[in-house]
Amino acid sequence: MESKKLYVGNLNYKTTEETLKSHFAQYGEVTSVNILKGRGFGFVEMGSAEAALEAKNKLNGTEFEGRKLIVNEAKPRADKPQAERRFPKY
Question: What's the pTM value of the predicted model, to 2 decimals?
Fold first, then answer.
């Protein structure tokens, strides 16, 4: 695993960035947390790729605030060709 950024899915809608940060901090330094409100997922960036890998391996499938977490390596954002179709350039 090369990335330090993790996708965290199936979050409880009441989960805060602070509680998620402290949960992941067990496995290393957490440099940033971003929860997309009302979407049930977010991103956690760890201080190193090793810490990210350990957090992924230890937390994926575990229960947190009543939900089983889905933890994967975050994929880079791709350009969205759909947006071009909705807003054509003239």
Answer: 0.83
